Q: What sequence folds into this?
């Protein structure tokens, strides 16, 4: 019978050690308080709450932009005093930041 030296035997067996089942901690298996009632599991459909998004015709992008754009007076710097004449703030003399 052929005998492996100790380092070679260890090198051959060590990779197989990861395949052995580990001992499961008792806290994961046993309930902490077994007298507390627990609801039984119930059936739920996998598709419960799924919405149907069917194919629709394309909409006008300009109208969609108007629907989500901020309304006049709802924010921004347009209503702030002294901002009308500043360049880049959308006033009458706005030169586009140049």
A:
């Amino acid at each position: 019978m052929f005998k492996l030296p100790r380092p070679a035997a260890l090198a051959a067996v060590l990779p197989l050690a990861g395949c052995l089942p580990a001992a499961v901690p008792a806290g994961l298996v046993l309930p902490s308080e077994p007298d507390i009632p627990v609801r039984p599991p119930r059936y739920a459909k996998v598709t419960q709450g799924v919405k149907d998004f069917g194919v629709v015709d394309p909409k006008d992008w300009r109208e969609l932009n108007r629907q989500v754009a901020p309304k006049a007076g709802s924010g921004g710097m347009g209503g702030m005093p002294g901002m009308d004449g500043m360049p880049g703030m959308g006033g009458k003399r706005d030169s586009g930041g140049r």
In short: Helices lie at 6-13, 26-29, 61-68. DSSP finds three helices and no strands in the chain. The mean pLDDT is 74. The two ends are 91 Å apart (CA to CA).
